[in-house]
Amino acid sequence: MTDDAQARIAEMVAKSDVLLFMKGSPLFPQCGFSSRAVAILNHLGAEFDSVDVLQDQGVRQGIKAFSDWPTIPQLYVKGEFIGGSDIMMEMYESGELAQLFEEQGVVSAG
Prior knowledge:
By secondary structure, the chain is α+β, with helices and mostly antiparallel strands. The protein contains five helices and four strands.
């Protein structure tokens, strides 16, 4: 994995309040886990950016090293790695994710 990919990933994470690295796009997710992650974010009313890892092999491999997390999707909020779709689901069900978004000011109240 190249330093270039790491630098690009770091830049993407830094410039987006809520960023989802996923397979496919929010309109056309290419796997069930990515689809579930998008559904959670949409349900919470979060404005988010996404990166299709299928379009960039460097990012696809690099993101796993960047976060030290083996799977995709991966969610970042204000530069902090939150987790994959299982963690997102658990946090969503417990209300933690909505609370985090509210605390970080990344979701419109109501």
